[in-house]
Specification:
The chain is built from 20 helices and no strands. The protein is mostly helical and 455 residues long. Helices cover 76% and strands 0% of the residues. Helix 13 (246-284) packs antiparallel against helix 20. The two termini are 43 Å apart. The protein has one domain (27-437): Growth Hormone, Chain: A. Residues 31-446 form the Major facilitator superfamily (MFS) profile domain. This is Putative proline/betaine transporter. It is a multi-pass membrane protein.
């Protein structure tokens, strides 16, 4: 035996052997923390704009005139982000399926954060004229771009690291970012409005929630940079099954799944933005709405969002026990019934009726939103999963949420609240049909890769 033979046969104890079949794993707590913290920050950034679009921007970024026209213009800029989100799902989905989940999640967080801080530094209409709403629209587009890439990556971070029997429950952690982000956003606005005069709030106080995002972004980056790649995507890398053009591939191989995933998510989006952005505008409108004090209605919303947060993890446990499809079908039927009750509850104007409206609606929101982080990713194979789940989620946002507050505000002003409830019933029926046409995915493997990949 030669010296070379001996050397080659002797293991090197100080050089660990890479086993592509066993990629590094992330500790459960780190995965759940990273997915929760990241989406909470992103949704905080997104929702402070929604609140400001009702309370601040109509006064500071649009010409003086009709209050309703200014609010509708402000809500139109709110909708711009939903146009940007499918673009973000394409851009970040491409890199998420080509480069990896971890790096893409970091990039999406930075994109959202820069746009949000930028809004907090913008000049107003009184200072620069029409340039103010233009700059506001540009920053809002940046927010949508970032969130378009965020959700898919966070959902995959949770579900691709989860045991199969607990995927829906793990998936509720990024979903919890929505109620937590909303609670933080409106809690900050409520604190500010109660500790300073209206003049001070409109002069500079409204900027504080946007600038606070700087601190939150630093926390989110620190958490995410310590993660390993998800095991499912690490296997894609090891097998050489990455595709060159994930967007082309997902429509070539999973076009039906994209359509069904989009329609499954539509009612969830409409419900949420009716319960939050529309209800805040209608509830605080003294001329055409209920005329509640701004701080009082924010408290009502925060109470409702607690129920949203409570039922989100519960829905994951139910979906793991009984399946995604039956869980979501049952909740969607309940959303349709709620649409018929919307006018009488919200239209009563009483504190009891308004609170019941918000609590019931946001409880249903938790029940329908929770399983989506498992439902949508499970529709797609690993090598196009980031793109497929992101596209479905964000095109649903474009169809279901972008103009939901605008449409609802117009319907309520023109025909009354019952028509807003009818709007929710209509989209609920669309989602119900999509769910009836879909298949159960609870027992599917997330390691599945097509045998032929266009790599």
């Amino acid at each position: 035996m030669t010296a070379e033979d001996v050397a080659s046969a002797t293991p090197e104890p100080d050089r660990p052997h890479a086993d592509p079949a066993q990629p590094p794993t992330n500790p459960k707590r780190k995965v759940l923390t990273a997915s929760l913290v990241g989406t909470s920050i992103e949704f905080y950034d997104f929702y402070i704009y929604a609140t400001a679009a009702v309370l601040v921007f109509p006064l500071l970024f649009f010409p003086e005139g009709d209050a309703m026209a200014a609010r509708l213009q402000s809500l139109a800029t709110f909708a711009i982000a939903f146009v940007a989100r499918p673009v973000g799902s394409w851009v970040f989905g491409h890199f998420g399926d080509r480069v990896g989940r971890k790096a893409t999640l970091v990039a999406s967080l930075l994109t959202m954060g820069i746009a949000t801080v930028g809004i907090g530094l913008l000049p107003t209409y009184a200072q620069v004229g029409v340039a103010a709403p233009v700059l506001l629209a540009v920053c809002r587009f940046g927010q949508g771009l970032g969130l378009g890439g965020e959700w898919g990556g966070a959902a995959l971070l949770a579900t691709e690291n989860a045991p199969r029997a607990k995927r829906a429950f793990y998936g509720t952690f990024p979903q919890l970012g929505a109620p937590i982000g909303f609670f933080l956003a409106n809690g900050v606005f409520l604190t500010i409005t109660q500790t300073m005069s209206d003049e001070t709030f409109l002069a500079w106080g409204w900027r504080v929630p946007f600038l606070l995002s700087t601190l939150l972004i630093a926390i989110g980056l620190w958490v995410r940079l310590t993660l390993h790649e998800t095991p499912a995507f690490a296997k894609v890398i090891a097998s050489g099954e990455r595709v060159k053009a994930p967007m082309v591939e997902v429509f070539r191989t999973s076009g039906v799944a994209v359509v069904l995933g989009t329609l499954i998510m539509v009612a969830t989006y409409v419900l949420f933005y009716l319960m939050t952005v529309f209800s805040l505008g209608f509830g605080t409108d003294a001329e055409n709405g209920l005329g509640y004090d701004r701080s009082q209605f924010l408290v009502f919303l925060l109470i409702g969002v607690l129920f949203f947060a409570l039922f989100t993890p519960i829905s994951g446990l139910i979906a793991d026990r009984f399946g995604r499809r039956p869980t979501l079908i049952t909740v969607t039927v309940a959303i349709i019934v709620f649409g018929f009750a919307m006018g009488p509850l919200m239209g009563s104007g009483s504190t009891v009726g308004v609170l019941a409206f918000l609590i019931i609606g946001l409880s249903l929101m938790g029940l329908t939103f929770g399983p989506m982080a498992a439902q949508l990713p499970e529709l797609f194979p690993t090598n196009v999963r980031y793109t497929g789940a992101s596209v479905s989620y964000n095109v649903a946002g474009l169809l279901g949420a972008s103009f939901a507050p605008y449409i609802a505000t117009w319907l309520a002003g023109r025909f009354g609240l019952n028509w807003v409830g009818g709007y929710l019933v209509l989209v609920g029926v669309i989602t119900l049909v999509a769910l009836l046409l879909s298949r159960e995915t609870k027992d599917d493997s997330l390691d599945a890769i097509p045998s032929r990949a266009a790599s």
